[in-house]
Amino acid sequence: MLEELFKAVILGVVEGVTEFLPISSTGHLIVTAQALNLEASLRGTFEIFIQIGAIVAVLVFYRQELRLQMGRAFIDRSVQFFWLGVLLAFLPAAVVGFVFSDAIDAVLFNPTVVGLALVGGGILFLSFEYFMDIPPLDAAESPNVTPRVSLRQAFIVGLCQLLALIPGMSRSGMSILGGLMAGLSRQAATRFSFYLAMPTLGIATLYSLVRDLDEVTAGGAQNLLLLGMGALVSGVVAWSAIAWLLRYIANHNFVAFAWYRIVAGGLILLLVAVGWL
Hints:
By secondary structure, this protein is mainly α. About 80% of the residues lie in helices and about 0% in strands.
């Protein structure tokens, strides 16, 4: 039991660190679960369940802003417009993911795909940083409030988020790249990615839990304890990761994340080639 709790804590840390950084939480969880030799029947359920911690983390982090938005939702057109943009960005991946979820799970959820996607996403980030003219934060826009995103920009983010259906590409990474492609600053693209995580992670996790409810409850109290521990750890770590990334991106670009992805992806492919994954 202690060994399984240790694995739960490790996976919770991995989820918390990677969910909101542009380096793919799903990809890291697939590889980590396999490296830890987590019980096969628990892997998919665990990867889904511990996302609850990350969802709670982003809701808690933006709780004051969300409270203000809720109070103004019926009278403030800018709030309505912003959440319409979030919905528009959410829909493409939600529809495609729902229709093809079984095929995606069966074909793409393996370390080889993760390694290739990490490398490919890293190259995309380097291309954006070196060859695109990324605008600075608008002087009229505070770095700590709701970003101003047009419906066209939101739709571009949503189309780019489709790539995140490939494990290893990263939901946050692809939505941030979509924001950069649409003309947002690094800070605005990152914050919009956090808001987009609320419906994307929330609905995807709820759907997966309902679909796999028998597996969640199959192990009884012991499995629920492991899942709860993983979710708790992931929530605490994810909150810290959100705060850190916002501070980091205020003065840095995404090049370090790009090189991390390339190195990590190359290492995973090497381990697959020698039979260690």
